[in-house]
Amino acid sequence: MTISTTTTARSIESIVTKQDRQQQLLQQQQPNNGHDRQRPFRRERTRTQPHPVMMVTSFLSKPILPAAMAHSVSFLLLLVAALLVTCAVPAVEGKLQMCEVETGQSSIILDIEESRGSSVAQHTNPPELPISGDPNEDITLELVFPKGKPTFLLDGKSLRLIHPLDRDEENLSHIVFQITCMVRSTRRKRNIPIIVRVSDVNDNPPMFINTPYETTVPELIERTTIETI
What we know:
Distance between the termini: 193 Å
Radius of gyration: 56 Å
CATH class of the domain at 100-199: Mainly Beta
Helix content: 25-40%
Structural class: alpha+beta
Number of strands: 6
Order of helices and strands: HHHEEEEHEE
């Protein structure tokens, strides 16, 4: 069998060409394989470095301060608020509410002298009822005498006698009655007991039971000596 030289050369050239192509393909695949091997590493790097938007969202979602420090800050804020309220309270509570007794007692005690003759001009002590509020603007006052006829009438916060007081004749040592105080703005009412103590005035002349009275006085008695009858 006869093989021409030209055919043999072409076959060898074809084989060499195929080998060259295979080598080129291998060389092209090697960088790709290396690139693919580096991809997991790059993916890991991208995982460790999140997107800036994700970083901001994650930062905002986390507490800025530790739990212990947050509790301390909350406690300090509450303390400051309590101090502010404490400083503001005296300005509000320091002022008595309407219809409260200014002395802090549940009742009011006054003193008045009995009348000298038919006089009704004497004043009580203190001269005004210690009740918080202005009777012309803030509150209304009304006297209540549950027993007997009224003895006083109101003049603002002052009591005025209606008739003379005779402590000896009426055996009158004190007068007890009530006053009703109503707050105009809220219509809230309160009854306050009042006790007026009547003091005695020596306005009656002396009275002698047995007459005449006789006694003996020594001639040389001292001027400051008091003789009992």
